[in-house]
Amino acid sequence: MIVKETLELVRERLSGLEVIVEGVAVGLFYAGIVVRSNHGVHGGVAYVFRAAPSCIPVKNAGSLHELDPLTLAELSLSPNLAEAAVGVAAINALSQVAMCEDARYRPVNVDVTDIVRKNERVAVIGYMEPVIRKLLGKTREVIVSEIIKVDNPIVPILPPSEAEPHIETANVVIITGSTLVNKTIDEILSTKLRAREVAVAGPTASILPDILFDHGVTSVMGIEITDPSKMLRVITQGGGTQQLLSTCARKKAYFKPKLIE
User: Fold this and answer.
1) What is the mean pLDDT of residues 6-19?
2) Which CATH number fits domain 112-221: 3.90.190.20, 3.20.20.70, 3.40.50.11590, 3.30.565.10?
3) pTM surpassing 0.90?
4) How far, in Å, are 44, 143, 162, 174, 195 from residue 121 at the CA level?
């Protein structure tokens, strides 16, 4: 499982480093975690599937901030999607600690639509309306797959079973980072993709990219939390992606290193 493998890699990279939890928030749209180490203060967020039947109250709500950050991160494996969001947010925060002074990670400020060439076929897994709007201005075909009901979508939405043939033959596949929370990322990446680019994108995709790269992803496009305290306030006050990006976060992308032959 990609999330479990990433959790173990984060645990390995942070071995011997003291990291403490400074704050935990769960809002309408995102869970957020803030951690502190001798590398500074870092934050991470993850999407909350609030309408899913398996998104139920968090068992230890009220005392999550007292837990060790790696214990919080282990919640990413929970079948309860509210707990899983907290866990993935913790992995994202810890990933920022692991990458912050590591020369192997060279982030760039790139929008996910920048990897798409004119008139390419693009498959989007997860209804990301701002991304889809940009894509419609530069591509001849955008296929969107989503498992959650969307009111008034700007493009037709296909269920995964109908979308699979289109996903397999797309030039570019863009996968929402929220698939890390509901664990569908593994099944998606097990599909025989022929895409030139496979991106995992969105605030939830702010994760140590190594394991995703090992499973065929070519770019991981998340965010960096620039003001962790404000991020917690935005989340608890019901903010979403646009509120995060306009007040306390910026886009940050990692590309899989190309092998030199």
Assistant:
1) 96
2) 3.40.50.11590
3) yes
4) 32, 8, 16, 11, 9
